[in-house]
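Q: What would this chain look like folded?
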Amino acid sequence: MPPISGPTYRCLRPLNLYKTPHLQDLVTQARAGGYLQFADTATVEGAVAVRLCEDGYPGWIAQAESQALTPVDHPYAPIQLDRAAIAARLPQVIAFARQAMAQPNRYLWGGTVGPDFDCSGLVQTAFGAAGIVLPRDSYQQEGFTTPIAWRDLEPGDLVFFGSPERTQHVGLYLGGGAYIHSSGINQGRNGIGHDSLTDLSDPISRAYSQQRRRPGRVMASYCPE
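A: My prediction, written as C-alpha cells:
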C-alpha cells in the first residue's frame, strides 16, 4: 500500500474496500458517516488507496466511489472510553448482535456493515454501534483485548478460536456458555447464529470448541496509531 496521510473524507454511504487495486477480494467496508484518508499517491488503474480512520484499516476503493465522499475540515478524533463506560454499553452491543441475527443474512468475508458479516466484522460493528471502536480482524481483536480465564467470562466478552499459531475466528459471549458469531459455510452456519462452549451436542459447537484459544475482555476503545 502507498503511504496514507492525505486529506480526510467522510463517507456519505457504505463503501467496499478491496485488497488490491484490481478491486478484488473484499477486506472491509466503510460505514456511512465513517472517516477515511486518501493515499499520498494518485490512483492506480481506476482505484484509490485509502485508510479507514476509526480502525486504521487499509484498502482500495474504486475511483468512481469518490463521489460518495465529502471532505471534512477537521481530522477524525477518537473517543476515549474506560472499562466502566464500556461495561455500561455492553447491553447495546449484545442487542445489536441479536438484532443482526434476526435479519436474513449470510456470511460475507470482509462484511462489516450488514446485513452480511464475517466473524470479526459482526463483533466490530456491534461494538461500534455502541460507540466502542475495535480493530478489524479477529487476530487484532485478540491482541487488543485483555486475556481472562474461561471461568471468568461475562456477557460482552469475546471468545477466540483458531490454531495454536493464530486466531482465525471470534464470537461475542452472551452468558450461560453461549456465544453469538457469524460463521462460514465450510465450518459453521453461513451466517449469524448461537453456539455453546459447554453444550457440545451440536457438531458446530463441538468443532469450534476443539479450536478454542482464549477469551478476552474489551477494556478500552481502540485508537490506531
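The first helix runs from residue 83 to 102.
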